Amino acid sequence: MIRGIRGATTVDHDQQESIVNATFSLLEDMIEKNNIDPEDTASVFISTTDDINSVFPAKALRKLEGWEYVPVMCMSEIPVKDALPFCIRVMVHVNTPKKQKEIQHVYHHEAVKLRPDLVGANRKVDL
User: Fold this and answer.
1) 110 is catalytic
2) Is 123 within the bounds of a domain?
3) What DSSP line would sit under 77-102, residue for residue?
4) Which residues form a coiled coil (predicted)?
5) How many structural domains comprise the chain?
């Protein structure tokens, strides 16, 4: 079964190092919490709000050992009025026997506001 694993983070401003570091930290956390093997990963989609345009956040994925052959694509979010600014969203498509409720979606920094419903005993959301 292919499952989608969601994650999101924010940065304070459009600066290459901040974007790559925040994305790297988010990906590491998503991988660890869901025990993701790159060999089981079909693809990774990364989107950003339109205020992020200095670097492709996918650069962070290429820093992870073993992930060099995983297809990754960056795209822009639709410009929704009053949307969370400086936001990076990640969707990892992974082959896993886990049930939907066993998947651990990960939200860092201000992105915790995106899915407050996932805050709970078995859904640790990072600040």
Assistant:
1) no
2) no
3) PP--TTPPSSEEEEEEEEE-S--GGG
4) none
5) 1
